[in-house]
Design a protein that fits this description.
The complex is a heterodimer of chains A (67) and B (366).
Chain A (H helix, E strand, L loop, with lengths): L1 E2 L7 H13 L3 E6 L2 H13 L3 E7 L2 E7 L1
Helix pairs in contact in A: 1-2
Chain B lengths: L7 H18 L10 H11 L13 H16 L6 E2 L3 H18 L3 H9 L3 H22 L8 E2 L2 H4 L1 H15 L18 H18 L3 H11 L3 H20 L17 H18 L3 H9 L3 H19 L8 E3 L2 E3 L5 H20 L2 H7 L1
Antiparallel strand pairs in B: 1-2, 3-4
Helix pairs in contact in B: 1-9, 1-11, 2-14, 3-8, 3-9, 3-13, 4-12, 4-14, 4-15, 5-6, 5-11, 6-10, 6-12, 10-11, 12-15, 13-14
The chains are: A alpha+beta (67), B mainly alpha (366).
């Protein structure tokens, strides 16, 4: 689980990118708290060939990336 | 590649380009339909934070951009009061981003408008801007972070939108307490209502699209993500075509461009400072206004840093002086010794901030 809540652009995507490049996970969960981060990570996930699901609760989002 | 582009971004880019052309046609200075650095500098002048008489006017565009963002963020339930990510550091970066921009004579948005107006000096600025972005990316990749924000109370979130609105109402109610340029760029402006309304539309769209001049190149380099870059390109193409149609385009040249100088090293270095600082902040000066409108207190502090930076730039004569032709004598304009020293100090400050906040370097120091 990557906790990228409160981080400004583009750090949440960098955190995801570093995990993807290092460990090539089949499944990765990321927490963010802004819609802009959801959009940015969605585009990056698509580039790397991950499917994405998003759950929202109290203005915070949990993104699940799966291959 | 194009599938992953958020369509709002090029749409916002085209609207920004058209609005900039219209504002220029209706009275704003040449190639300055929008310029966050210049307009914040003009506001600093109107509030008598500096006394450079040609650049004093309370630009309604700044108020409109922030309020447009607030309106869109509230409408789409994205308004969230948050803060706490190294505000003093962000203030300092804001100061030097502004000084860099005023050395070049424009923020990244005006750089694009100048490029679309045929100003080759702005292409040198673009090279510097890109260089600065690459330096910023170097640190981001090694773990640079100004730490996270936290949810805060509403008063923090509305501080900048509310302050700008109150100041703007004061300008309308008692203009005599403010300073207004009688000549120079500050005296050139579209009417108050037109400036305000156009900026509200642009601010709302920029919020929706996450438009950011630094984000485009940063994301293209880091993630092969061209979404934000499409906005940058859309503004350039729109302004270029618009200027050709309006008869304002006379080919690409570095000679005697409006409110620009041909001191190329300092065009390059000024914008490198802006690019580096903006990557550390997470967005260009326009984006800082939009984020402040969405309730981000750290961006509000950054804007205040930019306001102070503008005042310092004119009080200490750091800003670039434009090329001019007086009685047939051409002056290429340029930067004072003070300005050159300030840019060098800016690089030193950004280097220290970058090193102190990058995890790879913090670990190495231990």
């Amino acid at each position: 689980m990557i906790d990228a809540r409160g981080q400004s652009c583009p750090i949440p995507v960098v955190m995801v990118q570093q995990e993807v490049k290092k460990n090539h996970p089949q499944k990765l969960e990321v927490m963010v708290d802004a819609m802009v981060c959801v959009e940015n990570i969605s585009r990056y996930a698509a580039l790397e060939g991950y499917a994405l699901s998003v759950e929202e609760a109290d203005g915070e989002y949990t993104l699940t990336l799966t291959k | 590649m194009f599938k992953r582009i958020n369509p709002w971004v090029p749409i916002a880019g085209v609207v920004v380009g058209i609005a900039a052309l219209l504002l220029t046609a209706l009275g704003n200075p040449a190639n300055m339909g929008f310029c966050i650095a210049c307009f914040v500098r003009d506001i600093a002048g109107a509030m008598k934070l500096h006394s450079a008489e040609p650049v004093q006017y309370f630009r309604p565009e700044i108020v409109g951009l922030v309020l447009g963002s607030t309106i869109m963020a509230v409408a789409t339930k994205e308004f969230k009061a948050k803060a706490g990510s190294s505000p003093a550091t962000r203030f300092l970066i804001g100061v030097f981003v502004m000084i860099g921009a005023l050395v070049f004579l424009g923020c990244p948005l005006r750089m694009v408008l100048r490029m679309g107006g045929g100003d080759l000096n702005a292409f040198v600025g673009l090279a510097g801007f890109f260089l600065g972005i690459l330096i910023g990316i170097f640190f981001i990749k090694r773990g640079f972070s100004l730490k996270r924000t936290y949810e805060v109370t509403l008063s923090e979130g509305i501080s900048l939108p509310a302050a700008l609105l109150v100041m703007f109402l004061l300008v309308l109610a008692v203009p005599s307490i403010f300073a207004f340029s009688e000549s120079g760029p500050g005296s050139k402006h579209a009417t108050v209502l037109v400036s305000l309304l156009m900026a509200v539309v642009v601010g709302a769209l920029a919020q929706k699209a996450r438009l950011c001049m630094v984000g485009g190149m940063r994301d293209a380099v880091m993630f092969k993500d061209f979404s934000l870059l499409s906005g940058f390109v859309a503004i350039f193409v729109t302004v270029l075509i618009g200027n050709i149609i309006l008869g304002n385009f006379h080919g690409f040249s570095a000679y005697l461009q409006p409110i620009a100088h041909a001191s190329q090293l300092w065009n390059l270095l000024g914008m490198a400072l802006v690019g580096w600082g903006s990557v550390l902040l997470g967005g260009c000066p326009l984006r800082q206004l939009i984020l402040a409108g969405e309730g981000n207190g750290d961006s509000a502090v950054t804007v205040l840093g930019m306001l102070v930076g503008a005042a310092l730039a004119h009080n200490f004569k750091l800003a670039g002086s434009a090329a001019s032709l007086t009685d047939g004598v051409y002056s290429a304009g340029g930067i004072s010794v003070n300005g050159k020293i300030a840019v060098c100090i800016g690089f030193a400050v950004l280097l220290v901030i970058s090193l102190l906040n990058t995890s790879a370097f913090k670990k190495a120091a231990k």
